[in-house]
Amino acid sequence: MATAEKEEEMAVEDAPEGEETEGGDETEAEAPRRPRGKGRMRSRVTWDLCWAWYRALPEAQQAQIARMGFGHLLSVLPFHLDVPYLEALRERWEEDCKAFIMPWGHMIPTLEDVAYLTGLPVQGELVVGLERRDYHDDIAELLGQEFVAGRRRPIRSILLGSLSEAVGLRGRRRGPLESLDEFYARVRGALDLGDWSEERSVRIFVSYFFGRLLFATQSSQMNCKFVLLLRDLAQAGRYAWGAAMLGHLFSLLPSSSQRSQSTGGFTPFLQIWGYTRFPMGRGTLVEGRQTMVPLMTRWEVAPDPRVTDRRAGDVQVALDHYPHDQVVWTPYRGEADASHPAVAAGRPLFDGHLLLLCLGTCEVLYLELVVRTLGWHQPAIEVSSLGREGHSRRRFFAEDRDWGADHGSTVAYWREGGEQVLQVTDLRDSSAYMEDFQARYAGRLRLDRQVEVELTRLRAEVRTLRGELLRAQASRDAGASSSTQPTGEDLAVRLQRALDRAEARVWELEEQAREIGAQRQGGDVATLQAQMESLRLELEARISGLEAEQRTMVTAMEELRDDQATMRGRLLEARERQREAKTARVRIAADYEILKDRVLKKRREQQRQAQQATPARIVSAFASLDDIVSLGDPSVVRGGGLPRPEASTASRPPLPDRRREREEDEVSSSRRQRPAKGERREE
C-alpha cells in the first residue's frame, strides 16, 4: 500500500467534500472522457468495480451487506451514464426550492422514487453520528493499521484507491470492449482478502461503495466520518440509507451546477428518475424484466453509436419542447407494495414535508411543490411560506461533533413523520399554479425563445401568403375568359382570409412577446433587487463579524503588548541580576585567593615557629620526667655517677598540634560561608 499512502500524503487532506482533488484510481464511469472546459461534466461514480467486487465476495459477506440494506441496489447491472442528460438536469436545479425548474413545473425526486428505483431503506434511524477531528485510531481499529501507517496526523480522509489496493483491485477498470461477465471474472481472480475477518472485509468494501457510488463526491478521497457508521454492522442495517443518499445528492447539486466540471451524488438514480418522469433519454425498458425489483434493474442504457457529439444544449432544447401532457407524474401505479419491501416500510413518509439528514448535511424535501406526484392538483404556493430551511456543513471541524445531539430537534421531527401535506380539494386543475410558475421563472423557462420561433414561422408564412395573393390577383386581372374569373376571385378571397388570420396571430404573438419581455424585465429587476438586498445583508453580517473579530484582535494585541512590556522588564531585571551575580562571583574569587594566600602564609609562619620551639620543650619535658621518676624509686641512686640515658622520641607518638587544627577549621569554615553570601547577592 505504499503507493496509496504516498498519493494520500500528496492529496489535499483538508479539502471539503464536494471539492475535487486529483490522485484517485478508477475515477470516471463508463462515459467517455471529454475535453475539460466550461459546460463539460464528468461523473465520479465507479459502478462496474463495486458490482464485480460485491459479486466476488464470499456468500456470507454478501448476506451481511444485504442485511445492511444494500443488496437490492448492488443487484442492479451497471449501465451507461448519460452525461449530457445529467448535465442538462443539473443546470435546471434551483437551490432556493430544492427542485428542478422544468417547463411544466417543479420536479423533485422524492423518497417514493428512492424506494421504488433503488430499493434502499427510507424508513429507520437517521444517518447521524460522530464526526471527529482525527480518525487515526478509528481507521486503525475498523479497517486496519496499514491504512494509517506512515501518515501524518490528524487523519480526516482516506484515499479510495488505498481501499481497492488493499484487496488487490487497484486500477481495475472495465475495458471498452469488455463485457460485465468478463470483467467480473477478472476481478474475482484478482481479489485477495488475505486472512482478514469477515467484518473487516465488509467494512472495506462498504467504505469503497460509499465513496464511489452511494455518497460519491467530486473528490478521489472519502471523509472518514462514513467509516464510523460501520463500527456496529448490525446497527448499520437500521439506518435510513435512502433518505441519507437523497439528502447528500441535494447538497451536491448546487456546487456541481455552479463551479465544477464533475458531479457528485448517486447520479445513476437521478438519471433513471428522469427517464421514468419524462422519457426522452437513451434508456429503454428491457423485455422480460417487468417483475424485477428494484425498478432500476428493468432499465438498460447504452450509448447511441449514431450520435458522437451529443451535448447538454441539445437535451435542453428537447426539454424546452417536451410535450407537457406526456410528463408522467405517477409512474408507479400498478406496482404492488408487497414486491417492494422498502416501499411498504416507507409508505407513511411519502406524503410528508421532511428534513433529510446525512451527518452534517440537512436538506429540505419540499413535497408541497410536487403534489401532482401524489395524484393531486398542484396549488400555487410560495416557497418562502414553507419554512424549515436546511443547511450543509461538509468541511472538517477543529473538534469532535455529535450530530445526533446537534440535530436533536430534526431527529425528533423525522421520528414523528414530519408534517403531513394536506390536499387542496377545491381545485379543478393546476392552471393557477402554472401561471404563477411561468411568471416567476419566465427567464429560465425560455418562453420568449419559443415565441420568437413561432413568430419567425408565422412571418415566413405571411410572406408566402402575400406572394400567393399577388399572383392570384395578377392572374385574375390578366384572365381573358370570363369562365376562369370566379375561380381566381375565390382563390384570392381564400388567400386574403388566410393572410388576415396569420397577421392576427403575428400581432397576438408580438403582444405576447412584449408582455413576456416586460415580465422578464420586471422579474429581472425584482431578482436583481432581491439579490442586491441579500448581498447587502450578507455584507453587513460579514462586516459585523469582521468588526467583532477586529475588536477581539485589538484586545488580544493590547494584552500581548502588555505582556511583552512586562516580559521585557523582567528580562532586563534578570539580565541585571545576572551581571551583579557575575561581578559578585569575580569579587568572591579574588577575596578567596587573597584569604588563601594569607592563611597559607600564616600557616607556614606558625609551622616554622612550632618547629623551632619543639626540641626545647621536649628536652625540658623529659628532664622533668626523669626527676619525677627518680624521686619515687629508691633503687635509683641520684648522682651515682651513672650516665643517664638520653630521651628518645622515636617510640612516642607526636603531640597533636591543636593550634594548627584550629586554623584549618577556620579556613574551611570561611570557604563554606563566603560562596553562600555570594549566592545571596546573585539572587
TrEMBL record:
Please provide an example of a Pfam family that matches this protein in its UniProt record. PMD
Biased amino acid composition, Acidic residues: 1-29
Q: Which InterPro entries match?
A: AminoTfrase-like_pln_mobile (IPR019557), MAIN-like (IPR044824)
Q: Which UniProt keywords apply?
A: Coiled coil
Which intervals hold domain Aminotransferase-like plant mobile?
Answer: 70-421
The region called Disordered is annotated at: 1-38, 636-683
Is the keyword Ribonucleoprotein assigned to this protein? Answer: no
BP-aspect Gene Ontology terms = meristem maintenance
Q: Does the keyword Coiled coil apply?
A: yes
Task: From the UniProt record, list the coiled-coil ranges.
Answer: 455-577
Q: What is this protein called?
A: Aminotransferase-like plant mobile domain-containing protein
Provenance organism: Colocasia esculenta
